[in-house]
Amino acid sequence: MVAGFVLWFFRAEFAIRRILFGISITIVYMAMLLMFRPYIRRDLNFLAALGSQFSLAFSMLVALCMRIFNDIASFYDTQGAQRIMKFDGPSEIVGVSIALAFLAMVMLVVLTAYDVSVEAGDLAKRRRQNLPTCEWVIEPGQTFSCFLSHYKAEAGTEVRFLKESIDKMLGVPAYVDSSTLADLRVVLRSGVGKSEMLVVVLSKSLLTRPWSLLEICEAERLQKPIVVLELKGPGKQFSFEKAFALLADLESNLRALNPMAIVELQAHSQQPLSEMQETVRKILETARARGVPHLNINGWRLWKRLNPALPFQLSILCFARVL
């Protein structure tokens, strides 16, 4: 449309004016695209809209350079045009223009990739802010909806996200244990004992942590429902085979991997280690047989499979393994 307009508006002898007018209109249109972004998807705003407009403006700029070179050459001579324009001829102008256009397209692709990543982050944030909610009715004598048992060094980020999501969805807080607490009895009594269920986040070294073993056994003793989630991520993934090998002789294996774990277990539990390893082994066998949901680093994937119309008390049963 712009090309047709300038051909109609300007006479043939004003070719440079035509090109300058076309460049001006194209740049104005590009500025409007940047300001208003009329397309819903950001990658379309950059890659499709701005890419096409930039290509048009760049083509007109190349045509302008070639036209000026030819006009100078016709007025003086080719050597004069070369001295003024610093190009040997139109072919060199085209070559340099192609190289610059390639660099510009690379920059455009990088900007598009960055913009798409920003959009994905914004979308995840909006999803976290619009989680389904319900009115959770806490059982008498209970304080927390669930107790999140995990190894902080491996699953701290995921569990913080999980707690924030549960708190927002239920309106009832979830309990997150902390290895910095001085008295484990407080964790077992006020944490596991006051929670309606135990959520175990399986990670690579979870069973070498005495706190987690005690929390699992305490929940089993109190007949609490146990929800098992498996953490996914480089260097964090839980192995059932290695876990069963550890539990085959818990005392000897823990002495080799974490000697202080034996001291903690003996100090805070009257249960023999042989019974403890059997309790944990049965829970893991049942969990593996029934299937364990995955908890990803962008924990939203855990929730988006659930029907937002369901209350959380029903939703969690869709993926939880109550043992």
Structural summary, described in words:
This protein has 323 residues and is mainly alpha-helical. The protein folds into two domains: 2-129; 147-319, Rossmann fold (3-Layer(aba) Sandwich), CATH 3.40.50.10140. The protein has 14 helices and five strands. The protein has a five-stranded parallel β-sheet, sandwiched between helices. Helix 1 runs antiparallel to helix 2 (15-36) and helix 7 (184-192) packs across helix 8. The model is unreliable at 8-12 and 296-323 (pLDDT under 50).
Task: Briefly say what this structure is.
It is built from 14 helices and 5 strands. A 5-stranded parallel β-sheet has the order 2-1-3-4-5, sandwiched between helices.
As for the CATH topology of the largest domain, it is Rossmann fold
Indicate the overall shape: elongated
Low-confidence stretches: 8-12, 296-323
Report strand %.
5-15%
The number of distinct β-strands equals: 5
Order of helices and strands: HHHHHEHEHEHEHHHHEHH
In DSSP terms (H or I, runs of 4 or more residues), the helix count works out at 14
Write the layout of secondary structure elements.
Elements: H1 2-9, H2 15-36, H3 42-75, H4 78-85, H5 90-129, E1 147-149, H6 152-170, E2 175-176, H7 184-192, E3 198-202, H8 210-221, E4 226-231, H9 240-248, H10 250-257, H11 259-268, H12 273-290, E5 294-295, H13 300-304, H14 312-319
Parallel strand pairs: 1-2, 1-3, 3-4, 4-5
Helix pairs in contact: 1-2, 2-3, 3-4, 3-5, 7-8, 8-11, 9-12, 10-11
